[in-house]
């Protein structure tokens, strides 16, 4: 009965192992692409749909600035009118004795009108300034979104780091497990151990192979997600730049990061520009109180004569200065100006809120980064200890001084600590870029 169960278990193990080996070979034959972090950011920014929308918004704002500047140019109109002239009726005495004088049947009117604005209380100047500020706001919004996109891409990129390191650790662990299984089978033949140790070792090896297959599938999935975002062939397997994990990252003083964030953070710049835009809106609304002065000129060629209705052309022209003052603005614009002043106060309040958030974000990223650095140093020691513990347990097991459970537990501890070290290294990089983002440096 035990022999049948052993054969059945062995068959399942070999079948699952063949699936894992097939998956590994398929992954080995897949096209791979080395992807450094600089290229990740470059292509991520280029192909991100949100940033493309921001670029369109910026282009539209640029066109609005050109449109605003055209308000300085004169207005020029050309008019042409032609029509049928109805029969006029002239009453000689009150409403009696009507007569019907001879008049031409058709009328024509050709006119050219020219108007040049000279002074509009600053409306044109402030409108142009508003368009320029809206363009700068669109550009700053694009920079702010770009930083978010880069950090999001980096998060997935860090997942690749962890998965590749996990693949490396599992592959090495499988090789060692195969060697250990060979030794255990030899010891079983020599009668030193029972068949139970062989079965447990085979099951552990199968679990490791299944974990390796799962890791390879995860690498393929994360690669596909990144490839889609980067505008690349989604079947490529991306290979991250693992040297990034071992680059030394020096920390500056905390106050320096705060100062950099206040100065460079795109979101902070965006809020400041929106405050300037609101202040410009106050001046634009106040311009409604001021008069409008413009130069005008026109020339009209018409027939028939309007007074005598004689069928002759009449050419007239005039040049003058137009001045108008909107008295209704004295009672119509008060509330609009108050609203625009409140808008300025609201924007300044948002600036203060952002400064508070910046201090929180920078402090959090700063401490988490220091924490990750310390964690890496602690886990380096743990890895050395786990390696030594595994070596001791392996020697003891081979000399029949320990049971297989102790050896497998030591191997599991070693595996977990190595993976934790990789996670800690990736966290160092990610928290550093979080700190850079909080300071407006990516």
UniProtKB/TrEMBL annotation:
InterPro entries: OMP_efflux, TolC-like
UniProt keyword Oxidoreductase, yes or no: no
Cell division keyword on record: no
Coiled-coil stretches noted in the UniProt entry, renumbered to this chain: 369-396
Regions crossing the membrane: none
Subcellular localization(s) per the UniProt record: Cell outer membrane
Top-level taxon of the source organism: Bacteria
Signal peptide start and end residues: 1-26
UniProt keywords, alphabetically: Cell outer membrane, Coiled coil, Membrane, Signal, Transmembrane, Transmembrane beta strand, Transport
Record-stated family: Belongs to the outer membrane factor (OMF) (TC 1.B.17) family.
Protein name: TolC family protein
Annotated organism of origin: Phocaeicola faecium
């Amino acid at each position: 009965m035990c022999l049948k169960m052993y054969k059945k278990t062995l068959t399942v193990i070999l079948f699952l192992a063949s699936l894992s080996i097939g998956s590994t070979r398929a992954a080995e034959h897949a096209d791979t692409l080395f992807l450094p972090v600089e290229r990740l950011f470059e292509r991520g920014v280029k192909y991100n749909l949100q940033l493309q929308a921001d670029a369109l918004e910026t282009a539209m704002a640029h066109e609005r600035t050109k449109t605003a500047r055209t308000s300085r140019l004169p207005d020029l109109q050309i008019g042409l009118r032609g029509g049928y002239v109805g029969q006029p009726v002239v009453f000689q005495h009150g409403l009696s004795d009507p007569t019907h004088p001879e008049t031409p049947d058709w009328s024509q009117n050709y006119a050219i009108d020219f108007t040049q604005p000279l002074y509009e209380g600053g409306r044109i100047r402030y409108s142009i300034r508003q368009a320029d500020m809206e363009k700068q706001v669109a550009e700053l919004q694009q920079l702010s979104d770009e930083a978010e996109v880069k950090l999001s891409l980096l998060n997935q990129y860090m997942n690749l780091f962890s998965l590749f390191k996990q693949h490396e650790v599992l592959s090495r662990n499988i090789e060692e497990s195969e060697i250990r299984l060979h030794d255990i089978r030899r010891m079983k033949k020599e009668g030193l151990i029972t068949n139970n140790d062989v079965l447990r070792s085979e099951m552990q090896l199968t679990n490791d192979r299944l974990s390796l297959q799962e890791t390879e599938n995860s690498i393929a999935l994360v690669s596909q997600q990144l490839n889609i975002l980067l505008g690349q062939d989604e079947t490529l397997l991306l290979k991250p730049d693992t040297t990034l994990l071992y680059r030394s990252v020096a920390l500056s003083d905390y106050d320096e990061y705060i100062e950099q964030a206040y100065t460079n953070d795109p979101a902070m710049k965006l809020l400041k520009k929106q405050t300037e835009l609101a202040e410009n809106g106050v001046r634009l609304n106040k311009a409604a109180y001021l008069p409008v002065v413009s130069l005008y000129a026109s020339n009209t060629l018409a027939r028939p004569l309007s007074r005598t209705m004689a069928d002759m052309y009449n050419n007239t022209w005039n040049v003058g200065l137009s001045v108008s003052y909107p008295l209704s603005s004295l009672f119509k614009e008060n509330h609009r100006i108050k609203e625009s002043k409140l808008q300025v106060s609201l924007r300044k309040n948002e600036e203060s809120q952002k400064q508070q958030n910046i201090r929180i974000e920078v402090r959090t990223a700063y401490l988490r980064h220091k924490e990750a650095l310390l964690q890496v140093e602690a886990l380096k020691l743990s890895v050395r200890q786990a390696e030594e513990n595994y070596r001791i347990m392996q020697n003891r097991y081979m000399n029949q001084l320990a049971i297989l459970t102790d050896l497998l537990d030591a191997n599991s501890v070693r595996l977990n600590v190595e993976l934790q070290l990789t996670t800690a290294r990736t966290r160092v990089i990610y928290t550093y870029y979080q700190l850079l983002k909080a300071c407006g440096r990516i």
